[in-house]
Amino acid sequence: YVTRNNRYFEGKPIPCLPFEPLFGSTRHLLLRKVASHDFMRSIYDRFKEVKVFGMFDLINPVFVVRDPELIKQITVKDFDHFVNHRPIFGSNLDRDSIALFGKTLFALSDQQWRDMRATLSPAFTGSKMRLMFDQIVQCSAGVVEYYREKVNQSDEEHEMKDVFSRYTADVIASCAFGLQVDSYREPTNAFYINGKRMIDFTRIQTLLKAISYRVFPWLMEKLEIDLFDREASLFFAKIVLETEKTRETSGIVRPDMIHLLMQAKKGLLKRQKERDESHVEGFATAQESEVGMSSAQANEPLTQMELVAQCLIFFLAGFDTVANCLTFLAYELTINRDVQDQLYEEICATEDALQGKPISYEALQHMKYMDMVVSESLRKWSPAPSTDRICTRDYVVRLENGVEFTIDKGAIVFLPIAGIHYDPQYFPNPEKFDPERFSERNREKIIPGTYVPFGIGPRNCIGSRFALMEVKAIVYQLLKEFSFEQTSRTEVPIRLQKGFVALNSENGVHVKFTPRN
Ligand code: HEM
């Protein structure tokens, strides 16, 4: 069973990374000798001349696609062959069961995914983000207030992942679950602790479950084993179900995800025509495809557990990703003082133009340099170092040089995001943090398919607008009040956490907040 795929690449006209039984080509990752970001970069650089090469993820054959044209072909044009991610999260065979991971949009497959994407897509448009923006401002203003008090107590150095994880948890509580939580003043509140627990993939049980899903997916499915921690799932399920009940009985309407999902459950959530201003979008924003734009609703209404699972997606896909994006952005702003100063200038100009009014969604969207800085940070420190697809129908690849081969049904495709983002033919001098790559003049030169922090095609990140709004709002508020300064504990260059975990720093990012006046 373990070696049955070993000869898979032998007849194919593409190179293959060395591999060994069970470990495949990922031994160093599995044994925590390398960070996933560095791993993706190193394998991408291994075969500089080819468009595709093979490797093994444990026992499974993987095609790593290096070529942007082929990436677009697979993820957009011939999407019907590659609709799903790898089946490593469980499925939604029993729509009412408490095994929630398999019910999230990320894990759903085929028609269930198409229906859910079309159902959820109207909840993530610019107009819906605008409705949630006040809650984001409230959370980010709360953070600044908290650190202002801390400065008065002469406590000025902070570990940024901790700072931003708490912010992200408070935003999720407010925007997804309709709760007010203060994870700064109550650092051990149950929402924050259970949220952390939910996404802690370094716990040995979770790691073993993740590996077992890669090696014996059929068995894990049969046993209904959920990657989410059961106790934490129940904690959040209870919140969602109780909130839903209270809102139904008291007629409460609040502009948050629970409300939108309750509407979706009744088939009432419709895509609205966007107002003109919303056309100013972050460069990194992932655009919705026809699948998401389709007005077709699912044949069956959402079940209670499916609704709960979509709220949990904020933890699965939008907690660590956003906190890490912010942590690495803060790191770059701290060590690139010129960039920080230029961004601060734009913040002051925006503040002046607002004439005392609080920051608005539109004003934030119009901050060009902010968008350049965030875009560059997502290039250099992509929170998702790679993404994948599984081939659901045999697919013949024909390259211009006459090379031809088949990606067989069941094989995995990797899109090595971190590798592409550091390829000097697309981003010269890739180690340099240079927001100018994304200036209005320069961004036109970026080749489609080479900048994909939120993925690509119909299966791209549904939450990119939410993520960008959340990131920009806190950067605006914090930098307005404090400058970020390096201390003896700021590690330069930053070291990354090793193992299967997504982008994360090994020793934290320590930064001093110095009040501006
Ligand atoms: C900086 C933060 C984030 C980054 C870098 C990021 C990145 C990604 C990437 C690379 C994918 C896979 C796309 C593909 O395979 O083509 C993805 C999928 C997804 N993301 Fe995000 N994400 C972020 C924040 C969020 C947030 C805040 C949410 C909120 C709900 C979210 C929800 C999702 C969902 C639901 C999917 C699966 C979509 C589907 O399968 O249809 N993400 N994200």
TrEMBL record:
InterPro entries: Cyt_P450 (IPR001128), Cyt_P450_CS (IPR017972), Cyt_P450_E_grp-I (IPR002401), Cyt_P450_sf (IPR036396), Insect_CytP450_Detox (IPR050476). Heme binds at C461. It is found in: Endoplasmic reticulum membrane; Microsome membrane. Pfam families: p450. GO terms for molecular function: heme binding; iron ion binding; monooxygenase activity; oxidoreductase activity, acting on paired donors, with incorporation or reduction of molecular oxygen. Keywords: Endoplasmic reticulum, Heme, Iron, Membrane, Metal-binding, Microsome, Monooxygenase, Oxidoreductase, Signal. Belongs to the cytochrome P450 family. This is Uncharacterized protein.
